[in-house]
Input
Amino acid sequence: MTESTLILDVNAERLQELLQSQGYRVTVSEQNGMVQLLSASQGVGFAARMGNPGRDDGLFLDYTLSCALRVQGQLPEGLAERWNVEKRFARLTVQGAFLVLELDVIVAGGVSENYLRATTELWDRLLQEFLLFLRANASAQTEGDTPAAGADEVREEDAVAEEAAR
Output
């Protein structure tokens, strides 16, 4: 691969085209003055947020794919830590009433179009595994415990993302 074919930065439009070429419906939104892309996979909404600015305005060296789910009830102790030990590519955090799954995609230094596609496919797979992980942890609760955040007890943070998937 030659240096001229490497992707050295991204913008919202390029990322939107990439997601749409892979079958995602994408809605462009603005939050706190920053453009973000809203979409969904596996019936769960997610956002793509631009990261560190590149050399030119509107270009970025990385972006984050993020899925925030509102938790209803109590989470099992160490749930996020267990995910982070078992999975290498995306981190899970508890942020207030939300469980947040994030995957950083770095293009700084140059990547191929195939890399960006593969990263999107990895994200889709991680969302599938995330839902299975939540269901498994919900069903692992004993009768006397407070329910875990399972698929039936978690709501999307952003209803707009769900609407974008339709």
